[in-house]
Amino acid sequence: MNKRERVMAAIRGEPVDRVPFSFWLHNFAREDSARALTEETLRLHRAFDWDFLKPQSRYQCFAEMWGLEYRQAPDRAEWPVITKLPVRSAADLATIAPADPTKGALAEQLEAMSAIKAAAGPDVPVVATVFAPLMVAQFMVPGGIDAVLKLAREDAPKLERGLEAIAATQEAFTRELVARGVDGIFYATNVATKNLLTPGEFRRFQRPYDRRILEAAATLPFNIVHMCGGGILFEEFADYPVSVFSWATTTGNPSLTEVHRRTGRAVLGGLPAKPEIKTMTPQALVARARASLAEMGGRHHLLGPDCSINPDTPEELLHAVGAAVRKAA
User: Fold this and answer.
1) Best exposed site among 71, 259, 262, 265 by fewest CB in 10 Å?
2) For residue 329, pLDDT beyond 90
3) Where are the alpha helices (DSSP H) in 90-227?
4) What is the pLDDT of residues 118-138, one digit of tens each?
5) Which residue, among 40, 62, 30, has the nearest Cα to 190 in the 3D structure?
6) What rounded mean pLDDT belongs to the chain?
7) CA distance to 64, 71, 159, per residue, from 74 (Å)
8) CATH fold group of domain 3-327
9) From its phi and psi, is residue 270 left (phi > 0), alpha (psi between -120 and 50) or beta?
10) What is the DSSP code string of 263-289?
11) Are 277 and 313 a contacting pair, CB within 8 Å?
12) What is the number of alpha carbons within 13 Å of residue 289 lying toward its C-beta?
């Protein structure tokens, strides 16, 4: 099987020659231009020969559409420093308007995705990251998610006006991604956890915007919803119209088999993410990979990390997983 055949068969639950796998990680020093992101993604592609690519766009790019500014250190593992936020208070989210994704930071992301697709070739699936509006909102305001949720509980219409503008932008961005030939979106949220949202709040401030953006990607075969964090509100996601579910298989979250049984969809996971992975031995990481492969029995499974991995994860760890997966074929 080539990579595309392997990934698509795994999504459908059909037999595969081996379980497809991939990792994704930031290189903070190589994310501030389309060219650098493209070059870094293709470097990883050549080095590790993963079955699909998730270019790791800088996390702040979505909020940059409303004026976020940052300073980047030269170290690949050093997070950027935010120097200017788009609004002065959470209530000011009510004043923002939809942005044009063919300009600014998102135009840069579109350029990178097009270049990566062209260079990797038709046999390598590529998924593009899209953040949920509620996740974007926390990067725009002083006080972050605490300020956003305070606004949700004290003046919900103001937050909804802001979320509407962000959702319109993300929907338009997603349609542009579809037009550029990506194979799916990696739709991520780190807010939908039991310690942050009630189910009712999820249904008001998260779900309507998620569904709108996912609908814009509905024609793509490899859409992933990523539920970041511990204590995820999994039941609220179970009917989402995606091909693949991704989350951390940690205490308080469901297992790979539980999510597949509940949804009938493929699952992406089974390996640890940051910060744990960086300090593991190759033997321990391979053991984790083998346990996940055994749990899913080779069907409806794409092997990958719970979330992004440390930028300075030792490369020997990633090579060890690749060797083990190929040997298990």
Assistant:
1) 71
2) no
3) 104-120, 133-138, 144-154, 156-179, 199-205, 207-216
4) 999 999 999 999 999 999 999
5) 62
6) 97
7) 20, 10, 36
8) TIM Barrel (3.20.20)
9) left
10) H-SEEEEEE--TTGGGG--HHHHHHHH
11) yes
12) 30
Instruction: State residue 124's pLDDT score.
Output: 98
Q: Which two tokens stand for residue 290?
A: 């083998």
Q: Give the residue extent of every domain in the chain.
A: 3-327
Residue 231 neighbours by CB distance under 10 Å: 14
What are the tens digits of pLDDT across the range 64-98? 999 999 999 889 999 999 999 999 999 999 999 99
Question: Is residue 128 a contact partner of residue 55, using CB atoms and an 8 Å limit?
Answer: yes
Angle between helices 144-154 and 156-179 (to 10 degrees): 120
Separation of alpha carbons 34 and 37, rounded Å: 5
Terminal CA-to-CA distance of the chain, rounded, Å? 11
Q: Please state whether beta strands 224-227 and 266-271 pair in parallel, antiparallel, or not at all (unpaired).
A: unpaired
Q: Peptide bond before 55: cis, by omega within 30 degrees of 0? A: no
Query: What pLDDT, on the 0 to 100 scale, is given for residue 265?
Result: 98
Residue closest to 266 by CA, chosen among 2, 14, 3:
14
- Mean pLDDT of all residues in 273-295: 97
Backbone angles phi, psi at 174, to 5 degrees: -65, -40
| Residue closest to 22 by CA, chosen among 302, 314, 328, 307 | 302
